[in-house]
């Protein structure tokens, strides 16, 4: 489809504030100059529309109608200063001025919620979101878009999308992750505990590693959930957090505990009396550079079936599910 | 101590009642109002500790109430907790003081956030006593708090060290300095002569870990400090290396517990200062016991005290070049204070041996508080030590097990990576493939220079091919008699790092 036709359709999708790819690229370049000049950041969000129609959505009236709904939802959800448009036949882009990594994540959550409430065509019509931020992901607009496309590809390859985990409940996902054997550099399973190559202590070491990572870069925002049977001041994680200075990462300790746990330094206890936490414990950690999740299920004889991953989409998805199902504040840092 | 009062102004009566009930159950006093005008009246009249309001409160909305009360000098410091359906921009919102929560509310999280704000405010506002250690020594201060039967936390800051003493009914419950606690921490703090202190009255809930009475404790602390100073010359130097001369199984039963503890520590650590750091006993007791065990031939002091001061490992110019190179690699300003060198090996024993060799390099500081205690030597994970570069930047030596199932760890924790050390030997020849896979995977994520360290006889050509060794990746021998060999590993790594080839992440 030639550019002229696409521009014309783009104009039809939303009467105002929805632009074509030429405008988006030009605006993006100007935004890079502006962010450079004033030493600020900006982000872009890509929305890839998957699973509906043929190679592009302009083939039939129903497709255009669906696209129109999405375009309206994007325009309605974003701020008036944000620039949204169609950057490809199946891809929308939103340029978010003065927005950092976490602001872009918040926008993705809003867009995702807004898309979720739309009536979808029968054969799918799911959206995959990705983002990139200037200057951390690139120094010119092309690099920023490249970084966002790379993330989009990674997101589509993520277990979260591939296994359709987003449509399942938090504890169902946890059960699935700890019961299958995963082999790979992105996600892997391993056994720990009595008689295993890795001791139970190794699991504490991983948690301690995360806390030290948090303490070493106290200015860096992020989020960590540490779910365990009992929250107490004697947990290695709590002790290490106690010896660190003030940190920007939000650390939440989830589990049963007593009144005294409210005084834990650098962490917020979330008292949760859930029998499933007695046999399964987890750690989710997410910041701008790092995504890591560890889930361990205790078996008979003090052995643990563990799953861990560096898959950004999966870690983010697990955190979102946990926050939604336990009515926690939806935050990622 | 006064109970904190929370003023709750929410549109939904049921939500206000459940929040009020929950907070009351946790020891907070609550006042509930249904509109902004009443909230304004009671905020001025009752002066609550926190005001929790709906952003869409009737009559005067939450944001307007906030603007009004912020302008009133009596209420300007009261933290606000905003509760809303969606994110809104509240003008004048004070990050770190005010809280913004979106519905649905999790009551525990709400309480936790209120509590955090109250304790942060408490630490700023309710210091009962503060001053300098040069004006009043810590021992005098502790006696004063003891006589007045005070309860709270005494914070002491001296240089870059901070410590806390927890006091209840005037008696000392515990003392904490970084990862050290009990008497050991207290006696260290008693030696600080310069710095600031502040006493924050609050309920102490930490368990009582110090049993002795305050008077006896201070007398004993001062005695130990005097003894440590007077016998400093007789005790082993902190940098001395200790070796175990006997089989630990031959030690008779019934000796003092500190002896078994020190024997165990010497098996995993060799430097005196590391052993002192890790022991649970006080510094004086550890030095005294080590000295006596050296005299009895249980330990051998391998390097005598007063050894000549060693040359710096890197010159200032070299350090500046490395630092500039690292700074150029990372656009993120917060990542500038350190770089990581990842150590990967075919076996955990090789990592431990390499770290031991590194400890011979001047300026290398072994991290005694790292995740490298004795047990973890089986699968070393985390920070092992560091070099401090000019300008306060650290180069951290970091280890992650090489088994394939640990892939997510090296993917996640290799941010700020500046170099790779790969160690292999004949025994681990079967794991070379795993090592090569790890190297390839890391190289895909970050472009960093690598060096290879081998131990024993091994078909180097075949292994080098398997590992995809490039022309600039040099090979060194572990356990070579020349002591500079391990330094050469780092010279090679840093030499490559400052080349233009590795300019981009």
Describe it for me?
The complex is a heterodimer of chains A (333) and B (505). The longest helix of chain A has 18 residues, at 21-38. Chain A has helices at residues 3-13, 21-38, 61-77, 101-116, 141-157, 159-162, 170-179, 200-216, 236-243, 312-325, and strands at 18-19, 42-50, 83-88, 91-96, 126-134, 187-193, 222-231, 250-257, 268-271, 280-287, 291-299, 303-309. Chain A has 333 residues and is α+β, with helices and mostly antiparallel strands. In chain A, strand 11 (291-299) and strand 12 (303-309) form a beta hairpin. Chain A has two domains: 3-157, Reverse transcriptase/Diguanylate cyclase domain (Alpha-Beta Plaits), CATH 3.30.70.270; 165-325, 2-Layer Sandwich (Endonuclease, Chain A). A seven-stranded mixed beta sheet of chain B has the order 15-16-17-14-18-19-20. Chain B starts with a strand and ends in an 8-residue tail after the last helix. Classes of the chains: A alpha+beta (333), B alpha/beta (505). At the A-B interface, strand 6, helix 8, helix 9 and strand 9 of A face helix 4 and helix 13 of B.
Topology:
The complex is a heterodimer of chains A (333) and B (505).
Chain A: H1 3-13, E1 18-19, H2 21-38, E2 42-50, H3 61-77, E3 83-88, E4 91-96, H4 101-116, E5 126-134, H5 141-157, H6 159-162, H7 170-179, E6 187-193, H8 200-216, E7 222-231, H9 236-243, E8 250-257, E9 268-271, E10 280-287, E11 291-299, E12 303-309, H10 312-325
Helix pairs in contact in A: 3-4, 8-9
Chain B: E1 5-9, H1 13-25, E2 29-33, H2 36-46, E3 50-54, H3 62-71, E4 80-84, E5 99-102, H4 107-125, E6 129-132, H5 138-147, E7 152-158, E8 161-168, E9 171-177, E10 180-181, H6 182-190, E11 196-201, H7 214-230, E12 242-244, H8 257-268, H9 272-278, H10 283-295, E13 299-301, H11 316-329, E14 338-345, H12 348-358, E15 364-366, E16 382-389, E17 393-399, H13 407-412, E18 417-425, H14 432-445, E19 450-455, H15 460-466, E20 475-477, H16 485-497
Parallel strand pairs in B: 1-2, 1-3, 3-4, 4-5, 14-17, 14-18, 18-19, 19-20
Antiparallel strand pairs in B: 6-11, 7-8, 7-11, 8-9, 9-10, 12-13, 15-16, 16-17
Helix pairs in contact in B: 2-3, 6-7, 7-10
């Amino acid at each position: 489809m030639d550019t002229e036709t696409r521009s014309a359709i783009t104009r039809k999708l939303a009467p105002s504030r929805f632009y074509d790819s030429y405008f988006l690229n030009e605006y993006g370049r100007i935004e890079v100059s502006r962010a450079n000049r004033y030493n600020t950041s900006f982000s872009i969000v890509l929305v890839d529309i998957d699973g509906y129609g043929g190679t592009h959505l302009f083939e039939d009236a129903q497709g255009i109608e669906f696209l129109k709904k999405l375009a309206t939802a994007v325009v309605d959800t974003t701020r008036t200063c944000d620039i949204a448009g169609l950057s490809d036949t199946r891809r929308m882009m939103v340029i978010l001025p003065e927005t950092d990594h976490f602001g872009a994540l918040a926008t993705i959550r809003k867009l995702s919620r807004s898309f979720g409430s739309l009536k979808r065509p029968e054969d799918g019509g799911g959206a995959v979101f990705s983002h990139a931020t200037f200057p951390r992901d690139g120094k010119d607009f092309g690099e920023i878009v490249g970084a966002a496309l790379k993330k989009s590809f990674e997101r589509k390859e993520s277990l979260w999308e591939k296994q359709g985990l987003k449509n399942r409940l938090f504890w169902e996902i946890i059960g699935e992750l700890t019961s299958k054997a995963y082999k790979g550099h992105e996600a892997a399973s391993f056994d720990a505990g009595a008689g295993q190559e890795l001791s139970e202590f190794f699991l504490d070491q991983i948690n301690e590693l995360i806390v030290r990572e948090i303490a070493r870069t106290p200015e860096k925002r992020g989020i960590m959930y540490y779910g365990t049977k009992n929250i107490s001041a004697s947990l290695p994680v709590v002790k290490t957090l106690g010896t660190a200075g003030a940190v920007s990462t939000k650390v939440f300790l989830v589990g049963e505990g007593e009144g005294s746990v409210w005084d834990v330094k650098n962490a917020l206890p979330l008292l949760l009396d859930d029998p499933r936490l007695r046999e399964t414990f987890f750690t989710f950690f997410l910041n701008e550079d790092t995504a890591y999740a560890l889930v361990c299920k205790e078996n008979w004889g003090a052995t643990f079936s563990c799953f861990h991953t560096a898959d950004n989409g999966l870690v983010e998805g697990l955190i979102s599910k946990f926050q939604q199902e336990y009515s926690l504040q939806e935050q990622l840092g | 101590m006064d109970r904190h009062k929370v003023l709750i102004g929410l549109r939904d009566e049921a939500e206000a009642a459940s929040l009020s009930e929950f907070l009351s159950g946790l020891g907070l006093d609550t006042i509930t109002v249904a509109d902004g005008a009443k909230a304004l009246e009671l905020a001025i009249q009752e002066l609550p500790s926190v005001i929790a309001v709906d952003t869409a409160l009737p009559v005067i909305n939450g944001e307007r109430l906030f603007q009004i009360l912020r302008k009133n000098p009596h209420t300007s410091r009261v933290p606000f907790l905003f509760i809303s359906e969606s994110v809104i921009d509240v003008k004048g919102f004070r990050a770190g003081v005010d809280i913004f929560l979106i519905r649905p509310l999790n009551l525990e999280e709400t309480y936790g956030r209120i509590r955090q704000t109250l304790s942060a405010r408490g630490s700023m506002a309710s210091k009962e006593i503060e001053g300098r250690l040069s004006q009043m020594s810590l021992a005098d201060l502790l006696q004063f708090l003891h006589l007045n039967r005070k309860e709270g936390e005494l914070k002491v800051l001296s240089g870059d060290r901070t410590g806390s003493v927890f006091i209840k009914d005037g008696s000392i419950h515990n003392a904490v300095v970084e990862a050290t606690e009990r008497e050991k921490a207290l006696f260290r703090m008693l030696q600080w002569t310069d710095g600031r202190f502040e006493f924050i009255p609050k309920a102490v809930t930490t368990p009582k870990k110090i049993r002795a009475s305050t008077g006896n404790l201070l007398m004993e602390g001062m005695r130990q400090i005097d003894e440590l100073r007077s016998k400093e010359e007789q005790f082993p130097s902190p940098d001395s290396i200790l070796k175990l001369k006997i089989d630990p199984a031959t030690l008779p039963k019934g000796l003092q517990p500190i002896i078994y503890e020190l024997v165990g520590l010497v098996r995993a650590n060799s430097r005196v200062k590391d052993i002192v750091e890790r022991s649970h006993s006080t510094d004086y007791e550890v030095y005294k016991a080590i000295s006596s065990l050296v005299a009895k031939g249980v330990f051998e002091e391998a390097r005598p005290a007063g050894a000549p001061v060693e040359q710096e490992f890197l010159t200032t110019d070299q350090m500046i070049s490395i630092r500039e190179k690292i700074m150029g690699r990372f656009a993120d300003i917060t990542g500038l204070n350190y770089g990581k060198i990842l150590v990967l090996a075919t076996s955990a024993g090789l990592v431990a041996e390499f770290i031991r060799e590194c400890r011979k390099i001047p300026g290398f500081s072994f991290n005694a508080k790292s995740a490298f205690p004795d047990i973890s030597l089986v699968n070393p994970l985390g920070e092992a030590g560091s070099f401090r570069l000019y300008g306060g930047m650290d180069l951290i030596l970091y280890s992650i097990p090489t088994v394939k199932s640990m892939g997510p760890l090296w993917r996640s924790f290799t941010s700020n990576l500046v170099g790779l050390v790969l160690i292999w030997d004949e025994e681990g020849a079967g794991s070379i493939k795993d090592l090569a896979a790890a190297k390839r995977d890391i190289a895909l994520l970050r472009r960093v220079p690598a060096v290879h360290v081998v131990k024993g006889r091994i078909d180097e050509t075949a292994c080098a091919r398997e590992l995809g060794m490039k022309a600039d990746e040099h090979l060194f021998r572990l356990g070579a008699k020349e002591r500079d060999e391990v330094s050469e590993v780092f010279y090679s790594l840093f030499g490559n790092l400052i080349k233009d080839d590795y300019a981009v992440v």
